[in-house]
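Researcher: Let's do a round of design. I'm pasting the structure tokens now; please hold your answer until I've finished.
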């Protein structure tokens, strides 16, 4: 979820399990995605561009992952700077996503901008604030950054994500998804980069990670 400019005191959402407890269980191959161990990749965003979201051709398939049903909503490729990272050890969402990354692109990856922002994460939210005036128009901050929930496709991807650090440059390729359970629980990704507040986070089923450490 993206934060508003005043960001303290957000209501908590359940948090994650530790990386080492993650398991690839009950995983089947979805249509057009090829399952957790061999994801097919969507079109890749050119380096430095804004995130690339691509439609799924035909009727999207569903597949099982870690005891949940995932439905792909769109292909997703992002090249961004890591503004913050937060792991979660408890709660239902963490059974799928033990890591959130706050990511910035375009001018939200520039040192001159980020040095004027206070950035943190908690309770599945991304928080930012500034001392006097924002370094960018607030609408641009909203549309050039986001908190994203990472669902590793397999243990190798989980291990790669666990090495991602603040200020790293990272490329992620995979799928925006909706997760659901037989008892009616569901968790749906945003499919817009313009939204903020509740429901604005991307839920990303990650098939590939390319890491460029911080300079």
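Researcher: That's everything. Go ahead.
Model: Designed sequence:
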């Amino acid at each position: 979820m993206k934060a508003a400019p005043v960001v303290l005191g957000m209501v908590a959402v359940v948090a994650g399990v530790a990386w080492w407890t993650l398991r690839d269980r009950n995983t089947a191959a979805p249509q057009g995605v090829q399952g957790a161990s061999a994801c097919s990749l969507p079109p890749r965003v050119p380096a430095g561009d804004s995130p690339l979201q691509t439609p799924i051709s035909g009727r999207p398939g569903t597949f099982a992952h870690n005891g949940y049903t995932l439905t792909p909503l769109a292909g997703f490729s992002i090249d961004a700077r890591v503004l913050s990272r937060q792991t979660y050890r408890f709660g239902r969402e963490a059974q799928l996503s033990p890591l959130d990354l706050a990511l910035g692109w375009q001018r939200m990856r520039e040192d001159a901008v980020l040095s004027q922002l206070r950035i943190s994460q908690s309770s599945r939210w991304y928080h930012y604030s500034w001392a006097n005036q924002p370094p960018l128009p607030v609408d641009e901050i909203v549309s050039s950054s986001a908190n994203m929930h990472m669902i590793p496709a397999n243990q190798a991807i989980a291990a790669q994500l666990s090495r991602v650090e603040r200020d790293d440059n990272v490329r992620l390729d995979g799928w925006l998804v909706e997760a659901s359970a037989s008892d009616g629980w569901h968790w749906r990704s945003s499919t817009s980069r313009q939204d903020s507040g509740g429901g604005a986070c991307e839920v990303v089923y990650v098939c590939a990670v390319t890491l460029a450490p911080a300079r």
